[in-house]
Amino acid sequence: MKRYEPFLALVLAGGLIAAAIAAPWLRFVLTIALAKGIAVMGILLLLRAGQVSFGHALYIGFGAYVVAFFAPVAGDGVLIIAASAAGAGLLGLVVGLFVTRYRQIFFGMLNLAMCMVFYSLLEKLYHITHGTDGIRVEIMPIAGQVLDRVSYEWTVFGIAMGLAFVVGFIIRLYLASPMGEALAGIKTRETRLEFMGVPARGILLAAYVASAMLGGIGGALIAMTSRHVTPLLSYWTASGELVFIAILGGPGGVLGPFLGAATYELVRVYAAASFADAWQMILGLVLLLVILFAPGGLWGLASRLVGERRR
Can you tell me the mean pLDDT for 112-137? Predict the structure, then answer.
């Protein structure tokens, strides 16, 4: 664990808040980036065990549809975010009991298969989900407060920022705990863990459920921000986005997902505005440069620069 990580987290948070104040339209982009950063922290947990999920958009889509269905009933954003996390955790437990029996490419592809089944259900059950038309999410009270549009957007931005700090702190403690160390042991010494009496599958299942809950929170925040939910949130390309961000940010620390998500969203927005037909190529080039010159991702690059400055 890097001692300067909390300091860098404050600097990054200050930068995001300053950017949202200076350019109000960026508030939407940065809230989405924070939501995706929270979801990518779930990918980070699985990467610690050497497993890559190509289907975690399943939990983003699930969390988003919980918001779409229950916003008119529950009527409070805080309750709905909690319900999204709990529901995604239960779904993750059911799916995880099956997929954690497998490793490597089988683990990744089974997650992808589950995600695509969910996507197909969302698309086909038109009378419930409105198919590809999606469901509009109205502005909802938060903590009992009725808000206008601008106040609502700032509040969701603040909630996303607060959750990023809380979840990042918890995941940091988790990775430093014996369970986190055992998670790392699954990557290289799973058989030895079993010989020592450590249930590797149980450790991975716990991490999987936690990652599903993070996906649910991320999905809820995306739905509350974009205020429109469609099946595309759980399409396989959305899962690929999460893996892309995880690689871009780097798996070495809890700040990596947020660095990766902010960079991804900003590059995508500016590239799409400047080169509408080539923004995917620009994103690919950015990832290629990071892989070639910063194998540890943006977090690895930042750690190296700060470490050299402290010598």
Answer: 91
